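User: I've been trying to design a sequence by hand for this structure and keep getting stuck. Would you show me what you'd pick, starting by listing the structure so we're on the same page?

Assistant: Good idea, let's start from the same input. This is the structure you sent:
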């Protein structure tokens, strides 16, 4: 009788399979896939170490979804929302040119610490994105810039079947579908709600403001938003 995969093994297999994703986007857009890039072996090694540490069980977890990984953040490391210094500390692996908005990651770290630190947080939650690979576009000046899946309707139409497939695959990890948390209370929440209205993946979707929006535009209200996050996450 074959042994049942635990949560970490399912995530690792999913990320490996993401490395095979090929989606042709019209210029000036392109995918950034950390699981198939030049750092593929390093990324998958980091993923394996990290998820084995916190997800080496068959617990049910609630899903927290951002929009899509940032070009110089999770789209390089393959581990959603974790900052560079913490990942190096957790796994002993450093990836060049990796950067996460410090203020935003500091806010999420505070949420995690106040919830009960990483072991408890990751016992209860699994983080990823509605679109689990990054999207960027080349500007008129020739620079690559971040792009969310919903910023261009043509791009959204192209990637939506992939996003739906990825959401269904992740729910099969052992996700508690009674509630899903959406980081990004504007368009990301609106687009995820449209998908959910059609497919009924989750009983309820709770919108939460993006940490970058909080720290950049409302730093004086950080405590209020921290309380909002914690109240939402402690919902049973």
């Amino acid at each position: 009788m074959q042994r049942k995969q635990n949560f970490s093994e399912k995530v690792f297999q999913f990320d490996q399979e993401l490395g095979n994703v090929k989606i042709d986007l019209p210029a000036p857009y392109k995918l950034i896939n950390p699981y198939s890039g030049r750092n593929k072996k390093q990324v998958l090694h980091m993923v394996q170490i990290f998820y084995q540490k916190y997800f080496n069980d068959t617990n049910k977890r609630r899903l927290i979804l951002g929009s899509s990984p940032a070009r110089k953040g999770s789209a390089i490391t393959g581990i959603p929302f974790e900052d560079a210094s913490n990942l190096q500390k957790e796994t002993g692996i450093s990836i060049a040119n990796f950067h996460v908005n410090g203020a935003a990651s500091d806010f999420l770290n505070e949420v995690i610490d106040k919830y009960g630190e990483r072991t408890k947080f990751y016992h209860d939650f699994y983080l990823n994105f509605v679109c689990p690979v990054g999207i960027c576009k080349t500007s008129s000046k020739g620079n690559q810039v971040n792009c969310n899946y919903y910023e261009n309707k043509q791009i959204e139409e192209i990637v939506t079947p992939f996003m739906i497939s990825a959401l269904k695959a992740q729910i099969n990890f052992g996700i508690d579908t009674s509630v899903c948390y959406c980081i990004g209370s504007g368009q990301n929440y609106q687009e995820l709600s449209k998908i959910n209205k059609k497919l009924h993946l989750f009983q309820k979707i709770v919108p939460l403001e993006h940490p970058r929006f909080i720290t950049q535009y409302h730093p004086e209200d950080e405590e209020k938003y921290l309380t909002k996050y914690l109240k939402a996450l402690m919902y049973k």
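That's my pick for every position. To get oriented when you compare it with your attempt: The longest helix spans residues 153-171. The CA atoms of residues 90 and 177 lie 29 Å apart.
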